[in-house]
Amino acid sequence: MLGNILWWLCFAVVAIWTQSWLPGIDLLIVGVVICLEEGNPAQTAWIAGMSLLLQEGSGTLAFGFSILWYGSLIVLFLMGRWLFQAQNFLFITLLGACMGVLRYVLLLLMASLQDFQLSEPLVFTESLLQAAIFPLAWALAYKFRPKKESNDDVLA
């Protein structure tokens, strides 16, 4: 359990540090997807809640963007899991593309609701980067995530 907590702390530090180099990109959603793949509801709630609070608190838009963003991620993941295996790279790539489009739409929608001017080309570029970086970040995090040992391979 301590190893799991330390892994998630390290993941959060690396994701936040990387986001400081790539402003406008959300890498914490990768952790939420990994939690959803593992099927642990308590862990998913903690990681999604932490990510949501971090993103909502650091953004310039009014309350609500991150809730829509993370809620949409969860819905898209659960819907896509009906068609694909959760760890399939094609599924993750499609999910990343959907999140890129969704980021563009949600940012422009939330900005227009607040009469907040955003640079549309910048939002478009950030959305493309989000879509492109998401599968790569997932592959890296998935590779370094410790796998649970199953007792199926143990001979009695």
List the SSEs and their pairings.
Blueprint: H1 2-21, H2 28-38, H3 41-58, H4 65-80, H5 89-113, H6 120-144
Question: How is this structure best described in words?
Answer:
The protein has 156 residues and is mostly helical. It has helices at residues 2-21, 28-38, 41-58, 65-80, 89-113, 120-144.
DSSP strand count: 0
Low-confidence stretches: 150-156
The succession of helices and strands, N to C, reads HHHHHH
Give me the oligomer status: single chain
The main sheet comes to: none
The percent range for strand residues is: under 5%
Cα-based radius of gyration, to the nearest Å: 16 Å
N-to-C terminal Cα separation, in Å? 26 Å
Based on Cα principal axes, name the global outline: globular
In helices, the fraction of residues equals over 70%
Give a summary of the structure in a few sentences.
With 156 residues, the chain is mostly helical. 74% of the residues lie in helices and 0% in strands. The model is unreliable at 150-156 (pLDDT under 50).
